Automatic annotation (TrEMBL):
Residues 64-441 form the Circularly permuted ATP-grasp type domain. Coiled coil: none annotated. It comes from the Bacteria. InterPro entries: ATP-dep_Glu-Cys_Ligase-2, CP_ATPgrasp_2, UCP005522. This is Circularly permuted type 2 ATP-grasp protein.
Length: 465
């Protein structure tokens, strides 16, 4: 919100003025009102293994995060470039594998990757598009520099919170909206629907049938699944609602079977088809992969996209962008030490107290060490893990992440944030609604913004002017 000299950044001028005059009891009242709204709407998040909080609200901060239009234009161009390269990379590693032949990415990072699906080798999804919905996690370190922290190319979540956060803010703070020209995010559902329609198999009718496949009510993101199906005006289905006949997917309805053209699946690869992946999966659809290979149905995202979004491949993204696009990355990567490389491992072991160490396949803020905030016991535990399995880890410097004003028990205080914009790629165009999901570390000094680790969310404003 402020520049190094203490002056308020231009984008935050109106908000700073409003905060300086808003009485504390008004902010307290709005916080309680927001919580009541979220409870009525039913937005919850399940935490697996937490007996005390199987269903809970994600903390919501009432102070928006604000970006200027020029900042967003820079981010948007970088996001489009990155997702285009991700699609080209995935197509290549399941196809000609030119990047492996060129020695840019080591073979073992592909073929020994748990997310690599041999079933997709030599195959291509409809239109050769793999990542239709991407969630790219962005962090900021100063007024000029954005870094990509992580690529989510499988089933990125959180967009329902982006939409609900905006709706609640409009209801609670009309006076703030009247002072700003905030770019809308409400059209995300229309943009997503247009993207899903564009990627239907070529044999589909002019009005393809689209469904959202959920693991069911016990999934941690079930609220989002039902929310999105409702917003899109499509059927929310479980595996038992679908069946395959002659390599065509059908949905059971009261009027008889109805052909399905596009499945927006919120189900991991290994549960999709018990005939191909896990035979004990009761969540998927027997024969689905066969129908997929026959080109009769599109899965969003494609099977096997996880080969591109682990943290080891992340470290090669600058090279991947240069290889496929012949241009320099518009968004920087966080400098990354690959512990699989002996020199990098030695450096990491010597500097554990200074670094953030992450599992290559970790997510949700689990399985990581934040060196400056870790105890000696935690550091020694990770030292043993690194020595035992160095290829399973990467390490990064502890960035001085930007903070945003956040309303906490003590009043307005700085808290670290990141941003997850959602990138939609169809056959016709790339669509990105301005903004995204800002996640905020509610604990003072914490760098972990994940909801499973106590993080919250806030509305993200991109100014139209």
């Amino acid at each position: 919100m402020t520049l190094p000299d203490g002056s308020v950044r231009e984008a935050y001028g109106q908000l700073a003025e409003w905060l300086s005059t808003a009485p504390a009891d008004l902010l307290d009242y709005r916080v309680k009102e927001a919580e009541l709204l979220f409870r009525r709407i039913g937005i919850t998040f399940a935490v697996y293994g937490d007996a005390q909080a199987q269903e809970r609200l994600i903390p919501f901060d009432i102070i928006p995060r604000i970006l200027t239009n020029p900042e967003w234009v820079t981010l948007k161009a970088g996001l489009e470039q990155r997702v285009k390269a991700l699609n080209m990379y995935i197509s290549d590693v399941y196809g000609k594998r030119e990047i492996l032949k060129a020695g840019i990415v080591p073979n073992e990072l592909v073929f020994q990757n748990a997310a690599f699906r041999p079933e997709m080798a030599g195959k291509a999804p409809p239109h050769d598009l793999w990542v239709h919905i991407a969630g790219i996690d962005i962090v900021r370190v100063d007024a000029e520099t954005f870094y990509v922290l992580e690529d989510n190319a499988r089933t990125p979540s959180g967009v329902s919170y982006m939409l609900e956060n905006r709706e609640v803010m409009i209801r609670l703070f009309p006076e703030l909206f009247s002072r700003h020209r905030v770019a809308p995010v409400e059209r995300y559902a229309d943009e997503l629907l247009a993207t899903l329609r564009s990627i239907a198999p070529r044999s589909s009718s002019s009005e393809p049938t689209i469904v959202l496949l959920t693991p069911g009510v016990y999934n941690s993101a079930y609220y989002e699944h039902s929310f999105l199906a409702d917003k899109l005006g499509i059927e929310l289905v479980e595996g038992r609602d679908l069946f395959v006949r002659d390599d065509v997917v059908y949905m059971r309805t009261t009027e008889g079977p109805k052909r399905v053209d596009v499945i927006y699946r919120r189900l991991d690869d290994e549960f999709l088809d018990p005939l191909v992946f896990r035979p004990d999966s009761a969540l998927g659809v027997p024969g689905l992969v066969s129908a997929y290979h026959a080109g009769n149905v599109t899965l969003t995202n494609a099977i096997g996209t996880g080969v591109a979004d682990d943290k080891a491949i992340y470290s090669y993204m600058p090279e991947i962008i240069r290889f496929y696009l012949g241009t320099e990355p518009l968004l920087k990567n966080v400098p990354t030490h690959r512990c699989r490389e002996p020199e990098a491992l030695k450096y990491v072991l010597d500097h554990l107290e200074e670094l953030v160490v992450k599992e290559v396949h970790g997510s949700g803020g689990y399985g990581m060490l934040v060196g400056p905030h870790a105890t000696k016991e935690q550091i020694e535990l990770f030292r043993a893990k690194l020595n035992a399995s160095p290829a399973g880890f990467i390490a990064q410097p502890t960035l001085a992440l930007s903070t945003c004003p956040t309303y906490v028990d003590q009043g307005v205080a700085p808290r670290h944030v990141d941003l997850r914009p959602f990138v939609l790629t169809g056959t016709d165009e790339v669509r990105i609604v301005p903004g995204g999901l800002t996640r905020v570390a509610m604990k003072e000094g914490s760098l972990v913004v994940n909801s499973s680790q106590g993080g919250g969310t806030k509305d993200t404003w991109v100014l139209d002017t």
